UniProtKB/TrEMBL annotation:
Annotated protein name in UniProt: Glycoside hydrolase family 1 protein
Pfam families associated with the record: Glyco_hydro_1
GO BP: carbohydrate catabolic process
PROSITE patterns: GLYCOSYL_HYDROL_F1_1, GLYCOSYL_HYDROL_F1_2
Length: 478
């Protein structure tokens, strides 16, 4: 194997989202957001996938782990010091929209919320850690969901542009790297998370989802415009779930089916945000699915004029497809599943493990777009056991990460321009898909459990020291 070399300025670090770790859900003037009404436990996706989810908090029926997260809101200094001890060059985080605009549609921002992130950025700067900030990460203000119908409403474009502009002006000297919408292409599978609405029925789901996506495309371009005007050297990226789609076998029907799935899921959003135009394959897809977008004058010109600077992505798994599948063949995944791949093992949550798929993904994306790439999510959700001496020997996590980092190194050797790697859940947090604490990703263990018990105390896992060495050697020592 080629000796892997990572660029000197490679941004090693970790990633989190405000709604999954901050807590303090009703402190500092923060308004309620989507995550605040999502129940915890394995029933989460089942509950929110139902049509007509009511976006209410019902503590008689459910627990709400996002309300506490891991109390980063009060413990950020301790956590950032641990990130610095690992040697992080970058920390991908999100800003909770409803901390800045509690309802989402106010004219003036909440100063207390802005001041909180000032303190976070100042703490990161103290250690020389570069913030990579997601502007919207499954945190739509609840008022915008209930009063406007989420991103189905064109009015959210105005509210988002105002919100993003406030962030750029306030943090122009503190943040250089920005991402507009988290995993934007996942919206058609689970619109409640990215678009902030519960489908009324399956017949209108795609129509409403793609109309909401169009509004987000416009909002993203307006953010790119404002960001470059306010922070001339800013780098503003999109963020995609990427899962390469394999055909189950060499049956041409299955190969064509896999191709079509890949086009719509992996490339439609990227084409609009990077190339600045809807792809040609979208015309037939929209026609066959009765999708009629309302596109206002000037929208297409805006998309063309203000594309993103780079692509960031989450990579957890590949996806295997065939045209006709049975229930027993279906696989689990990050919003998307496909069918079980007989050549791959899976995590305890059924997510298939495919490091080579990451190399394939990076090659596919770079070949198509020729813009820098940034892996901002990748990791293994697993049960961790605390030994009697307090140690946590998560060799399974080290093995997973090692193989994926090797795959990134190979992609760089292939010619891919890769900016950095921020593995997901660098400190244990609430799982977005299951609302569980027991599905742990971190290098840092947090004493918080699914039933809400725990001290919130932090401790270092074996992977903490391993990743520290990876960063110190710039990927040479895996």
């Amino acid at each position: 194997m080629t000796k892997l070399t990572f660029p000197e300025n490679f941004l090693w670090g970790g990633a989190t989202a405000a709604n999954q770790l901050e807590g303090g859900y009703n402190e500092g003037g923060k308004g309620l957001n989507l995550a605040d009404v999502l129940p915890g436990g394995k029933i989460r996706l089942e509950v929110i996938a139902q049509t007509g989810f009511d976006f209410e908090i019902d503590k008689s029926k459910y627990v709400y782990p996002n309300h506490d997260g891991i109390d980063f809101y009060h413990r950020y200094k301790e956590d950032i010091a641990l990130f610095a001890e690992m040697g992080f060059k970058a920390y991908r985080m999100s800003i909770a929209w409803s901390r800045i605009f509690p309802n989402g549609d106010e004219l003036e921002p909440n100063e207390e919320g802005l001041a909180f992130y000032d303190k976070v950025f100042d703490e990161l700067a103290k250690y020389g850690i570069e913030p990579v900030v997601t502007i919207s990460h499954y945190e739509t203000p609840l008022h915008l969901i209930k009063e406007y119908g989420g991103w189905r409403s064109r009015e959210l474009v105005t509210f988002f542009e105002r919100y993003a502009t406030v962030l750029f002006k306030r943090y122009k000297d503190k943040v250089k790297y920005w991402l507009t919408f988290n995993e934007i292409n996942g919206a058609t599978h689970m619109p409640i998370l990215g678009l902030g609405f519960s489908p009324e029925n399956q017949e209108t789901k795609l129509q409403d989802s793609f109309q909401g996506l169009h509004h987000q495309f416009v909002a993203s371009s307006l953010a790119v415009k404002a960001g470059h005007e306010i922070i001339p050297d800013a780098q503003i990226g999109c963020m995609l779930i990427y899962a390469p789609v394999y055909a189950f076998d060499s049956n041409p029907e299955n190969i064509l089916h896999a191709l079509k799935e890949e086009q719509v899921f992996n490339y439609l959003c990227g084409d609009v945000q990077v190339r600045g135009a809807y792809p040609t394959f979208a015309k037939r897809y929209f026609k066959e699915n009765n999708i009629n977008l309302k596109i206002e004058d000037g929208d297409l010109e805006l998309l063309k004029q203000y594309p993103v600077d780079f692509i960031s992505l989450s990579y957890y798994m590949s996806r295997t497809e065939k045209k006709v599948k049975t229930d027993e063949e279906k696989a689990q995944g990050n919003l998307i599943g496909g069918i079980k791949n007989p050549f791959l093992n899976a995590s305890e949550w059924g997510w298939e493990i495919d490091p080579t798929g990451l190399r394939i993904s990076l090659n596919n994306l770079y070949d198509r777009y020729q813009v820098p790439l940034f892996v901002v999510e990748n990791g293994l959700g697993a049960y961790d056991k605390v030994e009697e001496d307090g140690s946590i020997n998560d060799d399974y996590r080290i093995d997973y990460l090692r193989e994926h980092i090797k795959a990134m190194g190979e992609a760089i050797e292939d010619g891919v321009e890769l900016m950095g790697y921020t593995s997901w859940g660098c400190i244990d947090l609430v799982s977005a898909s299951s609302g569980e604490m027991s599905k742990r990703y971190g290098y840092i263990y947090v004493d918080k459990h699914d039933d809400g018990s725990g001290t919130f105390d932090r401790s270092k896992k074996k992977s903490f020291y391993w990743y520290k060495d990876v960063i110190a050697t710039n990927g040479a020592n895996l």
